[in-house]
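Task 17 of the worksheet. Students: predict the tertiary structure of the chain below and write it out as structure tokens. Keep your answer in the requested format; marks are given for formatting as well as content.
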Amino acid sequence: MAAAASAYLQAQQELRSVQASLVQLDQQIAGADQRIAAAEQRAAGDRQREDALRQQIGEYARSAYQTEGSQLTQVMEARSIGEVWDAMAEARVVAERQRSLLDQLDQIRRADEAARDAARAARDALAAQRQQAESRLVDLEVRMNGLIAAVNAAGQVLGAAAGRVPSGRLAQTTGAAGQCTWYAEQAWVTYSEPSAPALTGDGADVVPNLARAEGRQVELEPVPGSLVSWERPLMSPYGHVAYVAAVDRDPGGNLTGYTVWEMNYTGPFQTDARHVTWTGRSGQVLFLSPSKPVDPIMEDLTLFGPPS
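Model answer:
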């Protein structure tokens, strides 16, 4: 639970890294757009070359037509096999030139298409990376908002000393030994409500469950002797529950903070006193006050005597 501040700092560092990567990706996308524009420009220049090649192909086609007509005459008038082969060779030269120009035209088109396709594919890949980075940024911002609430709720551990409770399980206690529920339930029955009904549920559930069992509404501000439940996911996936030992107010009577006694904030079976600065009411931090005013610190001294 005390790792919330560390997790927040880690998320903050990751957020900055993602923001930096977005700037870099924007620069890379701008470069990709320039490469696409250059490829389009080359393709436009190549279209002029294509037009010139088409014109040459047309001229060779006309030449080939004329050659075929003269070739027939030459073959018919040939006086030897050699003259026949000469006439045929001239027709092949014209056809090969046509094929060569057609090949050049095809190569130009393929090269232009490949360059444009590669540039567009590179940009699409960068855009996909940017979209993923933006999604990660949103996730981190949501996570950090939750962590801020957890950090505010965590407060500061003052020391290991906490109110003393009976070592034996009380009848109303259902929490597992060594857990936050066990200690808070023991403290509530010991100091605030000896005749309370059974206290049940995980840390997040203890206050709401007890309020329902007693036909009461949960509260959003503490008083000495209150139970306090931090709802999920504050503190842990199970929430957390503690017992309010004292409440701080300024000279004007405004609530400024409160101190809790608890177990398993720093580890199983470990108790501590922790001060929480008041940041205002929250639907994620629920209280239930005792039926009559209680001073837990004086009750602890009365029941158990001065600390040894």
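Marker's comment: The chain has five helices and six strands. The CA atoms of residues 63 and 169 lie 110 Å apart.
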